[in-house]
Amino acid sequence: xxxxxxxxxxxxxxxxxxxxxxxxxxxxxxxxxxxxxxxxxxxxxxxxxxxxxxxxxxxxxxxxxxxxxxxxxxxxxxxxxxxxxxxxxxxxxxxxxxxxxxxxxxxxxxxxxxxxxxxxxxxxxxxxxxxxxxxxxxxxxxxxxxxxxxxxxxxxxxxxxxxxxxxxxxxxxxxxxxxxxxxxxxxxxxxxxxxxxxxxxxxxxxxxxxxxxxxxxxxxxxxxxxxxxxxxxxxxxxxxxxxxxxxxxxxxxxxxxxxxxxxxxxxxxxxxxxxxxxxxxxxxxxxxxxxxxxxxxxxxxxxxxxxxxxxxxxxxxxxxxxxxxxxxxxxxxxxxxxxxxxxxxxxxxxxxxxxxxxxxxxxxxxxxxxxxxxxxxxxxxxxxxxxxxxxxxxxxxxxxxxxxxxxxxxxxxxxxxxxxxxxxxxxxxxxxxxxxxxxxxxxxxxxxxxxxxxxxxxxxxxxxxxxxxxxxxxxxxxxxxxxxxxxxxxxxxxxxxxxxxxxxxxxxxxxxxxxxxxxxxxxxxxxxxxxxxxxxxxxxxxxxxxxxxxxxxxxxxxxxxxxxxxxxxxxxxxxxxxxxxxxxxxxxxxxxxxxxxxxxxxxxxxxxxxxxxxxxxxxxxxxxxxxxxxxxxxxxxxxxxxxxxxxxxxxxxxxxxxxxxxxxxxxxxxxxxxxxxxxxxxxxxxxxxxxxxxxxxxxxxxxxxxxxxxxxxxxxxxxxxxxxxxxxxxxxxxxxxxxxxxxxxxxxxxxxxxxxxxxxxxxxxxxxxxxxxxxxxxxxxxxxxx
Length: 786
What we know:
This protein is an alpha/beta fold. 45% of the residues lie in helices and 6% in strands. The strands form 3 sheets. A 10-stranded parallel beta sheet has the order 3-4-5-8-9-10-11-12-13-14. A two-stranded antiparallel sheet has the order 1-2. The radius of gyration is 35 Å and the shape is elongated. It comes from Scophthalmus maximus (Turbot). Residues 765-786 are annotated as: Disordered.
């Protein structure tokens, strides 16, 4: 199955160690400080994996608890070696970088780390002799002093507090890259306008890759200082100008004599054509292509072509440059590995001389765009994911595994980007529906569930919540959600807080809650009950009563209560403590003709009646009269009458001594129960699903309430005769046959009860002899109990 490759042992071990630091690598030191064990030495391969996985867990696993001084574990290079570190988002502080300043880092990637101040620039100088690759993308505040303080590095610095942007307005002017002699790859995307890029970069003599995305450049002549070395230049969202074009052309002309011919990646793309001020001509593009002779990657997304650069050619599809529909690219010596044409008209032409193209013409171009732009250009990734959403919704996604992996990666990378979360969660809904399910592995579907829950946690906004809830509905519940059972229930209950008014989300969330507590172990139900599940459902019911509305939310809420109280006395007690019986009576009175509602309510009360300690609270004239009257109900076939009789059967089982009321009389109620049972069709198909017969079986070997015994026997006969393959094995497994023999032996058992008990035993015997007998028709569960 696609995407079902197991995690590597290294990955599994790394996650386990990070989640169990005190049991594996560390101990609790002085003042609860986390310390590395003295007998441990970790090479760079392991240390790099630990730090980078730690950062991923912090951003994607809500159950993972970050350690305040985690990076301090890597402060001593004698016991730990770091070489390649990737840190992102505001979680990273100045003290974290200071903790690892003695390490000989080769690569340091800091992305969107807006909690860093100019103190971290000082820390960067500690790595100047070893650093080869540095990324400061989106780290705007690192170029400002905190509160106007001078550039300083203090390893014992106090805890930093959140500060307003106004406190960071003192630009750091004392830093440049002097001494970073080994630095080859540099990403300064998003560099503040106040920073002089030319002066900052002047000391760097050996750069081979430079990214100045979103940087406003007053002049571009300084780029010629790397004419002999530069292999990659990214100028995304940098305003093109005659000067910049001339500079690049000059670079190319000069490089013909030297070694600039190895220039391989050139990016002058833009976020949108709407913001483009400079129009690219066929002549300019041709000049670039002619001079960059070893070009393998070119991105001109979002650029406006002033004149027509495409030609119409009539032959079969080809990537050969000489057959290119884009005229300037006919000058290429070989097809490009990558060509960015997103938000240009050129992506629609037939013959494009590149193996991987970004654009919006087809699914492949859209997926290429998501892949290329997710990390540093979420604004483009968002638009591409939106186009993927349309493909999955209207057409058919031909590269499902790749599409899912790319959307998951985007949602993980941009957990705090609302636009990505909205479009990504919407795309996941269509990519995980029934049409695609057979192509998805367990591991892949679990990844989808985790990113969906991340979105629900991060955003209370209506659209994200609705998309996430709808996506969860595509999974088998509760089975596929059980690995995140507690978390998903907590999130759904939060959605259902009274302040929320969005009806569609409320309806979906209640449906999910109901499904999650159906067919799960009792310990799951008890845990969810302690989260406030019962009270939340009753609050919803009370709100609907106030509105005099009986809709799906009302019915699902009672159904969920029916499920969560099954064989869980604590939840039954919560129902009674939270005015559940009062709401039952009010609903019964307000919605007299709602059959499904009545069935769900009576099913729930059947669960309460099974708890001996709680039955006295049901034994009041008011409640007994209501249950007795419902014996005559024809709502939902026999279900309401059946459930009412079940409640009374358990109450009668406690004997006449507990019946302290004068009206209604016990004998009168029992007579009505006999009449009701005799009126039911024993071949009735049922809207109910038993996981265990134990509550019914306990009513068999007794003489204190023959009508209760008869109700239990009738229930068993109905179920084993209508659904033999499901309920005969269950009855045999739980020892029901021997208890039925007891019924036959008791003098108090009524003749019709004994007759029915024999029929149940015969049915089970027949089933044991021929378990494949299908004479009784298909087995269909129309409803649920527990």
